[in-house]
Every structure is written in C-alpha cells, then in structure tokens.
Specification:
118 residues; alpha/beta; 2 helices; globular
C-alpha cells in the first residue's frame, strides 16, 4: 500500500448500516462504487478515489456528525441516480459559493451531499 502523501489526510470512511446488500445496491447504482466483501458483517467500498466500509457490527446512528460530500460533474444526473437508487432528496439543488449542491438521505438515513462546480 502506498501511503506517500497520506499523512494528515482523510483515509477511510466507515458507515454502520443495517443491511450491507442494500447499501451496496444503493451506492453501486447511484455512484458506481465497487465492493469487496470481508465476511457477513463487513464490506469495503471503493469510489475510484477513496475507500471505506460498510459494517453491521455497530448500531446505525445516521443523524449528526460530519457531512460527507461527493463531487459530480453533472449534478442533475447525480440527483436522478440517487432518486432511482432509492435515496431521498433532503435539500434540492441550490447554489452556494463555488457551485451548486444537493443533499440526500441514503436507505439507512445517512445524509450526504453532492456538489458540482457547474
């Protein structure tokens, strides 16, 4: 594993989920993430830039905490994909300094955002 340049950078994001298969279906469909299963209670995901995991070993606590923000070149397409995958739009597309974004809840209730510079 190459860790050059990784010092003091976010390296991994982990979500406690109630159903790993459902989380994989949602994020795979909405964002094209890939997955590696490590037993029945843990799955690693890769989005092409960052990796993380889904686990059922702890309770889901979807409210509060930091907001995970994804980037999309085409924000309207990303919103459509989130809805088609079963996500709930919490805040429709809105402008902010630097671009536009929207926020959604995944099937476990985690709120994430997607932003675009267009």
């Amino acid at each position: 594993m190459n860790t050059k340049g990784a010092d003091r950078k976010i390296d991994y994001v982990e979500f406690n989920v109630s159903d790993i298969a459902r989380a994989k279906a949602f994020y795979g469909s909405a964002f094209g993430w890939t997955f590696t299963d490590y037993g029945p209670d843990y799955c690693e995901f890769r989005d092409g830039r960052l990796s993380g995991g889904f686990t059922t070993l702890a309770p889901v606590t979807a409210k509060g905490g930091p907001l995970v923000i994804l980037f999309a070149a085409d924000i309207e397409d990303a919103l459509s994909r989130v809805e088609a995958a079963g996500g709930t739009i919490v805040k429709p597309i809105f402008p902010f300094p630097g671009g536009r974004r929207f926020q959604f809840a995944d099937p476990d209730g985690y709120e994430l955002a997607v932003w675009s510079d267009r």
